[in-house]
Amino acid sequence: MITLLKLKLAETLRAVAPLIVVVSILQITVVGASAAVFLQYLAGSVLVTAGLLLLLTGIDFGILPMGRYIGAKLAEKSSLSLLLVVVFALGFATTAAEPDVLVLASMVGEASQGELPSQPMVYVIAAGVGLFTVIGFLRVVLGFSMRWQLTAMYALTIALTFLAPSAVAPLAYDAGSVTTGVLAGPVVLAVALGVSSVIAGRSAVHDAFGLLGLASIGPILVILAIGWMTR
Predict the structure, then answer these.
(1) In sequence order, what DSSP letters do the residues of the chain get, joined into one string?
(2) How confident is the model at residue 205, as a pLDDT?
(3) Of 125, 195, 199, 202, which has the most beta carbons under 10 Å away?
(4) How high is the mean pLDDT of the chain?
(5) C-alpha angle with apex 127: 170 to 159, nearest 5 degrees?
(6) 103-120: pLDDT as tens digits
C-alpha cells in the first residue's frame, strides 16, 4: 500500500505541478491577485493534490481488481441479460458520480437560470453512458466489429447534429466529453477486461478497448435526440 501511494504521489505531482506553475507565473506577470486570493489558490491546490492521490490510489488498489473480478464472474454465469443489466447499472452509477459530469450539470443549471436543472441533466448523461456501454458489451460478447459499430453511431450523431436545435449541439458534445473520467473509465475497462479474459478465443486488447469511445457517444446522441424531438 505504501509503495502504491508513493507511485501515485509521483503521478499526481506530475499532473498538478504544470497547472500550479502556469498559474503562479500568471500571478507574477499578468494577474496580480491579492495575497489572500493567491494563498487560497495554493491551499486549494494542496487539497486537490491530496484528493487526487487518494482517488488514484483507491482506483488501483480496489476498484480495478474488483471490476475485473465482476466481469469474469458475470461471464462465467453465461447470462447475457444479467451481464447487460449489471453493465448498465455500473455505467449509470459511475457516470452519475463522475466529478466532471457534476460540474458540467451545475454550470448548465446556473447558466440557464434553472431552465435546465442540474440533477436531471446528470441522469440523462448517465443513462446515455449506461445504454451505450451495454451496446459496447454486446460487441464484446457477440464478437462483431467495433469499426462498423463506431461508424454507424458517429454517422447517426452527425445527422442528429444537423436536426437538433443549434443551441443543443454544443451542450451535447460537452456532455459526451466529460463522461469517461476517473470513475467511469477504469470501471468500464476493468469489467471488459474481466469479461474478455473468460470468453474463449478473445483478445483483451481487441475486445476491452474502444468501449469508452462508444460510451461517450451515448450522452451526445441522447441529448441531440431529445432536442430534436422537442424543438
Answers:
(1) -HHHHHHHHHHHHHHHHHHHHHHHHHIIIII---HHHHHHHHHHHHHHHHHHHHHHHHIIIIIHHHHHHHHHHHHHHT-HHHHHHHHHHHHHHHHHT-HHHHHHHHHHHHHTTTSS-HHHHHHHHHHHHHHHHHHHHHHHHH---HHHHHHHHHHHHHHHHHHS-TTHHHHHHHHHHTSSSTTHHHHHHHHHHHHHHHSTT--HHHHHTTHHHHHTHHHHHHHHHHHHHH-
(2) 64
(3) 125
(4) 84
(5) 45
(6) 888 888 888 777 788 888
